[in-house]
Write a structure and sequence with these properties.
This protein is globular. The longest helix has 21 residues. The protein is about 45% helix and about 10% strand. The chain starts with 9 loop residues before the first helix and ends in a 28-residue tail after the last helix. The strands form two sheets. It has a four-stranded parallel beta sheet, covered by helices on one side. It is α/β, with parallel strands linked by helices.
Length: about 325
């Protein structure tokens, strides 16, 4: 539903950012995207914003960076104002599983990005991962811990001792929630008990004074799965949960898993189960212009760990840019 690729004009980005900062008085500006460093106008926008932000002590953060030296270099320029930390999203612990989810990131790419960060003196690194991805194995999940300790070892090698002593690596792990209108819309979602077992295994491995580890609540992920792929019962369940006190439960301390389980009943397991590509899906009534055959083909490519090039306007592979779908080589 996010196709075709759309990029905001640099002039609009700069003017809206400055206008918002003037109106609110905030001390930080964040560029939010699946991969901020893929935005072609990023360097131009940052160069135009720095003269406004730097004298006012306004930090600019890039919450999700591609793991390459270019991204680190861009972040380093921003660190002149407020050097908080770098956030990377490897998503999966092994190269094979990253290929499954179309995250083209090799081990060499990761090491190069870490080296570039530590050579520039960065001491705070945040790594985002998911568990429960399609075709995932224990080895893939163990790879999360391996990457965390690789980060520490690269820092030990490249940072001066005093800086290494202050190293902080934050590992954040969430349960994957399949979404409608994507190649994984048919996949089974990992249950909360399975996720808890995986979390405990990871928690036992991720022990170091340099590591801070956080996990997204598995029961909360189940509710997200219900709302993401539930059928017509989901609206009534949401209303019933609210009536029983499920209010502000996007906050962990207010979340009541018992209420959701009680009011959802069998609909919860039904929303999380695997579907057949031949099934009629609750969201088929919505036309996102992405051809179902394209999604099914992408699912098979994922299972074979065959990456697909990024969306590019006019390729006619998925149906968004045309009413007809063509089989495009490499797409």
């Amino acid at each position: 539903m996010y196709r075709p690729l759309r990029e905001k004009a640099a002039d609009a980005t700069v003017s809206e950012a400055i206008e918002t900062l003037r109106a609110t008085g905030y001390e930080e500006l964040g560029f939010v995207s699946l991969s901020t460093s893929d935005y072609p106008a990023l360097v131009d926008v940052l160069d135009r914003l720095m003269p406004f932000c730097a004298p006012r002590g306004i930090g600019i953060s890039l919450p999700s960076l591609r793991m390459d030296s270019f991204s680190v270099g861009v972040a380093d320029r921003l660190g002149e104002v407020k050097k908080a930390g770098l956030t990377f999203a490897p998503e999966a612990g092994t190269e094979r599983l990253r290929a499954v989810i179309n995250k083209n990131l090799s081990q060499a790419d990761i090491e190069a990005a870490l080296d570039a960060a530590f050579e520039r003196g960065w001491q705070k690194i945040k790594l985002y991962f998911m568990i429960g991805l399609p075709t995932e194995t224990e080895e893939d999940r163990d790879g999360i811990a391996d990457l965390a300790f690789l980060t520490i070892e690269r820092a030990r090698t490249l940072l001066p001792r005093q800086m290494f002593n202050r190293l902080s690596v934050h590992v954040s792990v969430s349960t994957f929630v399949p979404k409608a209108h994507t190649p994984f819309q048919w996949e089974r979602q990992m249950s909360a008990p399975e996720a808890r077992r995986a979390i405990e295994r990871l928690r036992a491995r991720l022990r170091s004074r340099h590591l801070r580890v956080s996990f997204h609540d598995p029961e909360m992920a189940e509710v997200e799965g219900l709302l993401a792929r539930g059928d017509r019962r989901a609206g009534d369940i949401l209303y019933a949960a609210w009536k029983r006190g499920a209010v502000f439960d996007g906050w962990k301390e207010r979340f009541r898993a018992d209420i959701w389980r009680e009011v959802a009943g069998p609909a919860l397991a039904d929303a999380l189960r695997e579907r057949s590509p031949d099934d009629v899906l609750p969201w088929d009534i919505i036309d996102a212009r992405i051809d179902r055959r394209f999604l099914a083909r992408e699912r098979e490519r994922a299972r074979a760990a065959r990456p697909t090039p990024p969306c590019r306007p006019g390729c006619r592979a998925c149906g968004v840019c045309s009413d007809e779908v063509e089989v495009v080589e490499g797409a």
